[in-house]
Amino acid sequence: MTGQFEEFHAELRSVAGDLLAKDRAVEWSVLADAGWTGLEVPEHLGGAGATFSEVAVICEEMGRAASANSFLGSAVLAAGVVNALAPSDTRDTLLTEIAAGSTRVAVAFEPFEFVPDAEGADRILIVTDDGVVETDVTVTPQPVLDETRRLAIVTAKGGSVACVHHFDGYPQAQIRRVRDRAATAVACDSLGLSEAMLAATVAYAKVRRQFDRPIGSFQAVKHACADMYVAISVSRQLVNAAVRAVAEDQPDAGVKAAMAKSYACSAAVDVAGKAMQLHGGIGYTWESGIHVYLKRAALNRSLFGSPTTYRKELAQRYL
Predict the structure, then answer these.
(1) May I ask which residue range the UniProt record assigns to the signal sequence (predicted)?
(2) Does residue 36 contact residue 71 with C-beta atoms inside 8 Å?
(3) Coil, helix or strand for 136?
(4) Which residues contact residue 149 at a Cβ distance below 8 angstroms, ignoring those fewer than 6 apart?
(5) In angstroms, rounded to a whole number, what is the distance separating the alpha carbons of residues 5 and 276?
(6) Mean pLDDT confidence for 280-306
(7) Are 150 and 142 a contacting pair, CB within 8 Å?
(8) Do residues 146 and 269 make contact, with C-beta atoms less than 8 angstroms apart?
């Protein structure tokens, strides 16, 4: 990545961090006004004409702030699926509406369970082996431990199909790309929340005193923070590789996405757990806020496939 893009991403990260720090719950209209819903929408359709690399920056900041919004389902997944459709006026209209924020779209993969941001969506795109289908559905909210995400079960009513969209190219390849995007986006989120937990823990260890000295001076605390840092460093390398592979549509994008998702999301649970322990008794209280990150990390670990599933997939390469 050139210095020019690094500088742009740093500026985007700073702006996103400032906006998300104001309020944990961010409305869809705010995301649209910031231009985030149309990052990957072509400029002539009202978007920014950016790539998944820029989307990944926002996903990471979402995790760092443990932000509650519809960005994952109605922007990241929606734009990815619609961009994968064959060119048509219908596709362009939908992309324009996503960029403008006038239409909230949710994406459901079979078996339509735990669909992000389906509740309140204007349109639901159901991804099948042959294409993308729109039909009458019932959306049932699915409460989970993580209160920063809104998930639902989508059930087709069994009526006639309202609309069928065809993929641009081989359907299975396009579906795989969309799933790789989803996995990588969640890995970015987990990386951001891991870094937030390490920063909070280090700051706390500097001011919390025991036996007339900061707890950060104790060897056990130093080692625990070092372990957190190492895990995050490995996550950063894997996530960066996955983001680049997905953005550039590299042949091994699926492998890199699987590695990032399986490691970064598992590491985030461990990092958040260590953060809670190192905060002592206050870490287990509602006031500390660490529980929010731990619950989000736990959901990220299983969303769009568990680490075990991805590791089995990776292991097949060596059989």
Answers:
(1) none
(2) yes
(3) strand
(4) 68, 72, 116, 296, 299
(5) 35
(6) 93
(7) no
(8) no
Cα gap 33→28, rounded to integer Å: 9
The fold of 171-318 is Butyryl-CoA Dehydrogenase, subunit A; domain 3 (1.20.140)
Strands 115-116 and 151-165: antiparallel
pLDDT confidence bin for 1, thresholds 50/70/90: very low
3-state class (DSSP) for residue 134: strand
Tokens 């619609």 -> residue: 82
Residue range 3-165 in CATH 3.40.50.10190: no
Q: Which two tokens stand for residue 51?
A: 């790539």
Question: For residue 220, what are the contacts with CB-CB under 8 A and spacing of at least 6?
Answer: none
Alpha-carbon gap, residue 11 to 31, rounded angstroms: 17
Give how far Cα 181 sits from Cα of 53, 242, 295, Å. Answer: 11, 9, 22
Q: What is the mean pLDDT of residues 276-281?
A: 94
Q: Domain spans of the chain? A: 3-165, 171-318
Using one digit for the tens of pLDDT, what is the confidence trace for 46-77?
999 999 999 999 999 999 999 999 999 999 99
Contacts of 206 (CB under 8 A, 6+ apart): 214, 216
DSSP symbol at 77: I
The span from the CA of 186 to the CA of 105, in Å, is: 18
Kindly state the helix (H) or strand (E) to which residue 137 belongs, with its residue range.
strand 132-141
The pLDDT tens digits for 111-151 are: 788 999 999 999 999 999 888 999 999 999 999 999 999 99
Where b means 16+ CB within 10 Å and e means fewer, 97-134 reads bbbebebbbbbbbeebebbbbbbebebbbbbeeebbbe
